[in-house]
Design brief:
A hairpin with a 2-residue loop joins β3 and β4. The chain starts with a helix and ends with a strand. It is α+β, with helices and mostly antiparallel strands.
């Protein structure tokens, strides 16, 4: 350490390559950190948009939940003659995401473009809506109308050229309909 300090304090100019190397190393580290933050911001924004789409889908089921709420629980059922039948709307989550995020359909993907370049791709949306059992014995312990969604996000990495693979992750979100009154 004292040798390094001696090189930096020296008046011969031998510290110039060392200062350039340290500056380049810090620049590369800063670029890596900024790329990591870019990827996390995109993932967070997409997760929030998917969460909003799932909440919208759950809220779109309010008309089917009404009859269950009237009976004391929040299930998606409607009267059918003298009995009840399940009634759940899945909505069109991709259309909601396309409108919210400005996505374009391209093959099996919903793609966000930044100019000519691909910013991110979405695919593999899976939505599972769990209805409340009809007339549960304990309505307080019933889960409510629950929607789980999983979507695959792929973001090309712009750091390191084409040597790094794109970031791929599955985003999981959940929404629940529960009556307030």
């Amino acid at each position: 350490m004292t040798k390094l300090y001696g090189i930096l304090k020296g008046k011969k100019g031998s510290s110039f390559p060392l200062v350039v190397a340290i500056t380049l190393a810090l620049g590369i580290i800063l670029c890596g950190i900024s790329e990591y933050l870019r990827l996390m911001i995109i993932a967070s924004g997409v997760r929030d948009a998917v969460q909003s789409a799932i909440i919208s889908t759950v809220n779109d089921n309010y008309d089917d939940v009404y009859h269950g709420v009237r009976e004391g629980y929040a299930g998606g059922y409607k009267p059918s003659g003298s009995s009840w039948e399940g009634s759940i709307d899945y909505g069109d989550i991709y259309e909601y995401l396309d409108n919210t995020l400005g996505l374009q359909k391209n093959g099996g993907y919903h793609v966000k473009y930044a100019g000519e370049a691909v910013e991110f791709k979405l695919s593999g949306l899976s939505v599972d809506i769990t209805n409340v059992p009809l007339a549960p014995s304990d309505s307080d312990s019933a889960q409510g109308l629950l929607a789980d969604a999983v979507i695959r996000l792929e973001v090309p990495v712009s750091f390191g050229g084409k040597s790094l693979p794109p970031m791929r992750m599955n985003l999981k979100v959940q929404a629940k309909y529960m009556p307030l009154f």
